[in-house]
Amino acid sequence: MIDFSKVKLVVSDMDGTLLNSKGQVSSQFFDLFNQLKKQNIHFCAASGRQHNSIVSKLETIKDDIYVIAENGGVAKKGNKVLLSNFLSSKKILEFIPVIRTISGANMVLCGDNCAFIESKDERFIQLFQEYYHSFEQVDDLFEIAKKKSIFKIAVYHFDSSEDFIYPVVKDLHKDVLFKISGQNWLDISDKKANKGKALKKVQSLLNISKDETLVFGDYHNDIEMMQEANFSFAMKNAHKDIKALAKYTTESNDNYGVEVVLEQLLNSKSRKH
Asked: Mean pLDDT, to the nearest integer, of 182-196?
C-alpha cells in the first residue's frame, strides 16, 4: 500500500493519460477533483496541447487549476501567465524548409493561443482540430515565423513521428529540444521549454517539494516532469521508456488509471485524519 499522505500536488498529462481514447475526461475525475480541493491538494494539467484545448476539456474547474501547455512552452493559473518560453524565429526559419521535404509530414507553428498551418491535407486538418482549437490556415509559414512569437513547432505524421520525422531533424540543431510526444507527434521547442521546468515553477510558487508531488504520464514529453515527483505513475498504455522510468504503474487511460490512484490518495488522506 502506497502512503500518499504527503501529497499536496497532483499533475497529469492529458492525451493517453487523463483523457480516454475518445478524448474525454470522466465525470468521476471531476468528483475526485472536488474532494482533492477540500483536502487542499492542488491539481495541474500538463500537455503538449494548446492552452485553449486543455481548458476546454476542464472547463468547469479551469479557474482552480494550474495549466502547463505546449509541453512547457507556457504555464498559467486562470489567465495569469506564470512562465513562457518561445522558440527563436531564426531556428524556426531553419527548420521549416527541412520539414517541408518530409513526405507525409504536417507542420504546425504554435503561437500564443493561435496555431498556424500551411497543410492542405483535409484528413490532417480534421484531426488537428482536436488538439488546437484556435488556428489559422496560411499560405506560407515562413511569413508567420518572421512576425509572430511561437512556442514550438509541432509535426504530425500519420504513421510514426519517431520513425519518419525525428531522424530527419535530430541533427539540424543542438540548441533545441526534440520531444516525441505521441505516436504521431514530434515537438521542437526551446531548450528551456519542457514540462519538468514548468512544473518546478508551479512547485516553487506553491512551496511544494518533489516529495509532495504526484505525476501521471504516458510518453516521452512526460519524462522531465516525472523526474520532479517522488510519486511517478506510468499508465498501462504508456511507452515502454516511461514504464521503465516511473516508480509505479496504474491502469490504462480507458480503465480510469488516474482516477484509481486519486481514490487511493484520498483514502490515504482520510486515514490520516
From this structure: 93
